[in-house]
Amino acid sequence: MSRTTASVAEPVVVPERAGRIQRGIRRGLQNAGWYTVLVALAVITVFPFAWMLLTSLKGPLDPITSVPPQFLPSEVTFANYERVLAALPIPRFFLNSVIASTVTSLLNVLVSAMAAYPLAKMRFRGRTAIFYALLATLIVPAQLTYIPSFVLAVNVFQYYDTLPSVIFPGLVSAFNIFLLRQAFKAVPNDLIDAARVDGAGEWRIWWQVLLPIVRPSLAAVAIFTFVVSWNDFLWPSLMLHDRDGMTLPVGLAALQGFFSADFRSIAAGVTLTVLPILLFFIAAQRWFVRGLAGAVKG
Amino acid sequence: MTRRFAATPYLFLAPALVLLAIFVAYPMVAVVWYSFTDYDIVRPPVFVGLDNYQQLLGDEVFRLALTHSFLYLIVTPILIVLAISLAIVVNRSMRGIHVFRALYFVPAVSGSIAIGLSWRWLFERNGFINSSLQAMGLIDTPIQWLGNPSLVLPIAMLLTIWAGVGYYSVIFLAGLQNIPEELYDAARIDGCSDLQKHRHVSLPGLRPQITFVAVISSLAALKVFDEIYVLTNRTGGILDSGTTIVFYLWKQAFQLSHAGYASAIAIVLLAITLVFSVVNVRLLERGQAEP
User: Which ipTM value was assigned to this complex?
Assistant: First the structure.
């Protein structure tokens, strides 16, 4: 490894340097090869979005269906965006999505973290039974519950066509309980015992000792739940019909119906709705990775 | 000490258990009951015994939906192979690698409706794919991609794969980074090529992740809905060529108001999922022999 000693002798330096240059060239070529692969994959990933963006910026004089396809608009226009915004209250969709996803993810984390504590750190009657009951709910496909949940929403809770109808069913997730149980288990018992000796009750131990320690896990679970809730479509589409009450995915599906063949406008609508979640992702990127990576450790 | 413990654990668990009882346990019981009834959600259900199940047996579209959903499982092995390959490609320290990793994850956060619409636009009769193929002289007349019964399902699968590779590769990447470097060094000393190194070190090391992704992605494939909904413009495709179990459930329950019949479909979906889960749990237990 350390060639510094050898390089003291003059004649050795020349072949040594030549070798280094050769290695450098080889690594450079190898890197170039990898970058080509990476860029090609990036193009495949991003192209559908890029094509949407380009389509959305084209005016009526720019062809969007020509052969060969024309990539860049000859003149950038925001008319499509104006048309979409005039036809559908996209800022309202956005606000509804923000409210529904934020409330869902915060309360879900709270409820899951509460349930995770006794499962991780306490002994009590029925613990195993509850554990397996939770496990069983993971198997039930959400779609199975939609018909009875629909009836409940209309007849019992009477929150049909309001935001609470998409919030309440999302407030609990056995998956999140298991993830946080894992996180709590990793906290040393000595810490909890010490707090107990100091006279802290179980609620204080949970709130002031455990939650701060597992904060990274809480953040990962919260952000994950946020995105899942943000992109949820089938259940919200069953519940939300009033135009001012829709979340973004439901509004987007409505947009498809509204503009049927006007792809300039649809493209503008899609771009408008993808942009916010992309910005959120860029800001919260490392938590995604942590959340996904943590999910498998088991 | 023991007395203080008495009620506390149950209080901690109460909100979660109440919510699960309302939104999972009760609906499960109710859907079993509905499956034995004639029900349109508006009028009260009327008990009809096994009528719905009998009707299912002779329902051609249901059989088609089942077939499509099982065919959809092909995406799972493809996703695993591609996601592992992508993880291996991005598991190297190069300038800007984080940007690429983030880019590949973009479809996973963009939402199925948005990406579905962007794909529909690519595959439109006058869309980008046809224009490009025509410009290259590969075809003379535009192909009816989404209007062709034999192409709807493959395009939806392609969309699922495209959107899922980046997502699952994050899981595999985390797994790869947990494999001790010494194992690769040992393989190198033993004269393994790069490809052999991945076969003999990476793949065994990724077993927990492979099992996890197999479980998650196959269950997701069985329940595919959004892609079909958008790509077929909520029709399920010409001649039901894109109809899957969940799509058919949705159509029967919420388009045709056959909630009783749809409940019977839901029970079949549950049965399939159960069988799948049992198989999966077996695999998981084997994959996680070491804690």
Answer: 0.89
Write out pLDDT tens, residues A234-256. Answer: 999 999 999 999 999 999 999 88
Q: Which comes out higher in pLDDT, residue B158 or A281?
A: B158
Closest-CA distance, B166 to chain A, in angstroms, reads 9
User: Under 8 Å CB-to-CB from A59, ≥6 apart: which residues?
Assistant: A73, A75, A77, A79
Model confidence at B285, pLDDT cuts 50, 70, 90, reads: low
Residue in B11, B20, B40, B69 to test binding to A, most A beta-carbons within 10 Å: B20
B137 DSSP assignment = T
Burial readout B13-32 (b: 16 or more C-beta within 10 A, e: otherwise): bebbbebbebbbbebbebbb
- CA of B5, closest CA in chain A: separation in Å? 8
Considering only CA atoms, which of A77, A78, A74, A76 is closest in space to residue A63?
Answer: A74
Nearest Cβ partner for B103 among A45, A252, A295: A45
Minimum CA–CA partner of B134 in chain A = A67
Bridge-based pairing of strands B46-47 and B37-38 is antiparallel
Are residues A152 and A21 located together in one domain of the fold?
no
Cβ within 8 Å of A, B 36-95: 41, 86, 89-90, 92, 94
Q: Range of A51's domain?
A: 6-56
Cα separation, B58 vs B249, whole angstroms: 16
From chain B, pick out residues whose CB is under 8 angstroms from the CB of A197.
Answer: none
Model pTM? 0.89
The pLDDT value given to residue A63: 84
Tokens found for residue B276? 């799948």
What CATH homologous superfamily does B59-256 map to? MetI-like (1.10.3720.10)
